[in-house]
Structures are given as C-alpha cells and as structure tokens.
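Hello K.,

You asked for the raw outputs rather than the summary table, so here they are, unedited. I folded two proteins back to back in the same session to keep the settings identical. This is the first:
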Amino acid sequence: MTNFPFTAVLGQDELKQCLLLSAVDPGIGGVLALGDRGTGKTTTVRALGALLSRSGLPAPVVDLPLGATEDRVVGALDIQAALAEGERRFAPGLLAEAHGGFLYVDEINLLDDYLVDLLLDVAASGVNRVERDGISHTHPARFVLIGSGNPEEGDLRPQLEDRFGLSTTVSTIADQQVRARIIRARLAYDTNPEEFLDRYAPQEQALGEAVADARRRLESVALPDDLLDRVVRLCVAAKATGHRAELVLARAARAHASLRGADRADTTDLRAVALAALRHRIPRTPYETPSDVDARLADLL
C-alpha cells in the first residue's frame, strides 16, 4: 500500500511544519492537531512516516484505535504460545510497534481515560512495563505521540493536552483555488498512485534528506543566551502555565534552525514556532476562538 506524498499535501503548512520539527527532534513532545474532520490530518501523518522511511529513517506510524484494549496497547501473554507450547511468552503491543516512530491517535479527545493515563506514563518514561498474566516484561517505547480530533466532539484532558509539545488548529480551507488543487491532486493519486508518487519523488527525496541532515546536526546548533532570555520573557508575558513551554520553545526553535541549515537559532526561528508551542498553554476565556488566541500571542512576538 502506498501513501500520499507528504510534499503533495496542500494547505496545511503549520501541521506539516510541526510534524517535521518533531521528526528532527522527538524530544519536542509530539503534535496535537485539532480541527475540522476531513482536512487530511491522518493522510499527512502517514505521509511523513513514508517520507522518512524512504530516506533511511525508519519511522513507523502506528494507529491506536479508540476501541483498543489494554492488552493490544501494552502487550500481553502470547496465548497461542501458551496453549501450543506451554510457554509464557510476551506478545508485543502497539507501544512496541511504535518504538522509534509515531503513535497516532485519531479522535484523541474521545480516548478512554485509563488509556490516556497509560500513554502519559509511557511517553514520560520512554519505557513500557508490563506486569500481568504471570509475565513481567520491560521494553523501550520511545515514540512521537500525534493526536488529532474535532473539538466539537469533546474537550481534551488538560493533563494530556499539556504533554503535547506543539499544537495546531486544522481548518477547512476557504480558498477556492487551493481547494480545487487539493481535489485534482487526490483524484490523480487515486487514478494512478505510482505515477503520482514518481512525480513527487524528487521533492520527497530532497525533504527527507533535509530532515535526516537536520537530525544529525541538531545538537551542534547553538541556542544563544539572549534567545533563551527572549523565550522566557515571551512565556511570562503570555502567562504560559508551567515551565514546559520554555523547554518546548527552545527545542522547537533549535530544530527549526537545524532544518533550515543554520548553525544557531535566532528570533526568526522563535517566531516560526511560538504559536504552536504556546497556544495550548495559555489561559483562554470560554468564548475565545483559536484565531483570537493566536492574535493575542502574535501581539507579543
């Protein structure tokens, strides 16, 4: 099965940037994409995984469905091995499959609270510990958590929302020309996927190589003291809750600088990532729209 090319996704520039930054630095903490359904969120996430894999960066995209059981998520006793061989053996779950890649949860605002707590624990530690059914097993589970959903269908728990490094609002595109281009691209892909992929192969290769290079040089990108001071001032002015905002802003700015090939992060990088890093961490009134929140933040930049 082929995936729609990442570089062919139109009209969702901020979502694409957030995903790329998280691919460069998984320590940013993942991406939350809330907004209208049918806007290509799932397509874009899967396209990124395919782009990275083609560039020699294995990054599986594993879907966590709403109805998934705890056994399916964390892993459990291998029943077949137990019955056939009388052996207690661990059967890996979705968290093991997502190690080194992306764990994607669509409609994350509707996810069972117990699974939310489980994801928070594993995402924080990077380790999945299973003690059940007579087995004791531990394995690494480091993944980029990607969540999407429609806010009209329910609110996201604040504890979970805060754990996402970056947040973006995905809206239906109003520009008629862009909408027409989206439809033409999708129809062309559905008609002949291989030909469509070949058309975008050069762009996919170039972007994949850029991400791989940005990953390699990330730690060498400087974060000047004056930029870190500005990060702190911005978080204080925005009344960001907690101190995770500063860390995410600094890491995202450095990843942005690395992706554009710079040796040091500057205010250009900070401005490019500030909205995504802060919009879900500042106080909001009940009647504020996402555009209102972004406007408030933009005034501080």
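The second followed immediately with the same parameters:
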Amino acid sequence: MKRKHRKKERDLDYSHYLHPRWWPTWLGVGAMWLMARLPLGMQWKIGKLIGELAWRFIPQRRHIAETNIRACFPELSDNEQRALVRKAFHSNGIGLMEIGVAWFRNASDFMNITRVHGLENLDKARAGGKGVMLLGGHFSTLDLGGCLSTEVIEADVMQRDHNNPLMNAVMTRARQRRYGAVLDSKDLRGLLKRLKANRTVWYATDQDYGRKGIVFAPFFGIPAGSITATSRIAERSGCAVVPFSHFRRDDKPGYDIYFHPALENFPSGDDLADATLVNQAIEREIRRQPDQYLWMHRRFKTRPNRDDPAFYGKKRKR
C-alpha cells in the first residue's frame, strides 16, 4: 500500500486509430458489434461452439483447467471432472459473446430476464457512509454481470487495461458509459478516494498476482497466493466488503445477480484470517455454478515454497 501508482494515460480517442495497422482490431470490434445484435439464444449457441473448439484445440488451457478442477473437486469422479472442464469451456465461450452484449447493447433490454437478489444487503452496507467494496470473482459473466448490475446500483469498477491500446479504448469507453469511474487495477489511491466518497467499487482478488503482498490462504483447501490489499484497503477506508456474484441460468436465457451480507469483523488484523474469509466467500459463489468460473487461469501458480514442484507441471498422459 506504500507504493504510489503512476497513472498511465489511456488514449481513448478513436481518431488516433485510423492507421491500417489498427484495421484488424477494428475488424474484430466490428464482428463483436454485429454478433451482439443476434438473439441471445443464438449467441449462446455460438459461444458454446467457440468453447468447444477451444477445449479441443487449446491443450495448454485445457490442461490448466483439468489440473484446477481435479484439485478443487476431488469428490467428483474422473468422468464428472472431465465433463465439468468441458462445460467450463462452453461457459467461458458464451462469456466471450456476452462481452459484445455488455459493450454494445443497452443493458435495460435484458432486465426482464434478470433477477437481483439481496440488494438490501448493499443498501445496508452503504448506509455506513464509508463506501462499499464489491468483492467479485472472475466468472464467465464478468462484463455482462457488471453491466446488468449498474441498472440497479451506481458503481465504479477497477480493470486491468488491455495490452492492445485500441481494444482498451473500446473496452474503457464502453465501461465509462455504465460505471461512474473506470480505475486502473493498480490505482489504489483512486480506489481509496472513491470509497471515501461513499462510492461502491467492484474489486476482484481471486487471481494469482505473484509473490508480493500475499499470504497463502486456503482456496478449495489448497494454499493459494492471496493478496492482503483487500484488508489494507478496508482498514484505511473503513469500507464494507460485500461479496458479489452473477451467473447465467442453465434452464433458459436469463441471469441472476447476488449481493450478500457484508463480511463481519473485517479486517480482523490477521492477514491470513482475512484472506481465508475472502477466499471462502468467493469459493461459496463458485460452487453455485462451478462451470462458470475461469478455471483456465493458473490460480495456484505461486507455491508456498519456491522449491515446491510446479503445480501445473507436465500434462498427464491419457
């Protein structure tokens, strides 16, 4: 928390991206815009096909997902684990399609098929007057879930900027239309400022960010590098931390958004206990719809001891 973040200027002016080298990106953006206009059911079918192709032809990511699910769901049989891996690819393929919906469609068009649960929990947390941190996770409905939530709440968001400047401009401009502020993921000063203004800010902590500023807290029973920044931010701002999740329905096109009661006795002063509480909150939400989580991420890459065997090692031969 001591290191100051030097904000890198985002170039969001589309007129700066007219050179032919940007044309392939524009073509991709145009394809996203067109597909976002398709009926939702058709988008889901296309997304599932994308996921199926990724499952078949991107073995490295399939191996990561297989390793994660095998470790996190040992109670499942081999066949059940394989089925969950495949379904996770399908869900994340649909999530890719939903990015276009979030960026280029009006969220109000989908509120008739969206159910919001526990909004009173957020209202209660905001009544404290010191801001709310929405404790999110990397679910496949990441963009659309956040977009839909802004139909019922005012919120800010933190994002990791895209490596492609043009794609980052498209993403940021789309999110600026939905959120009050779009903060860089490292802009902790900006985050604290928004919280002190009693704003609600979406914040995700569930990925492996390396060895700095972490403790190894259990996540599905496995020691996982877990950042301590969540506790530091809550301590400095006095904000409430409200677990937040969003899922796609299995039975028919539609979405569910959940706001849970704020974490109690948080922060406690014990980094490990706090990180464990955060991981437990995220894990509970993952178990609602385990296929809709980003299992392709190397969540357990950083090991407690530097000489521990690599978690993702070599692929097992079938």
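Residues 78-104 form the longest helix (27 residues).

Happy to rerun anything if the numbers look odd on your end.

Regards,
P.
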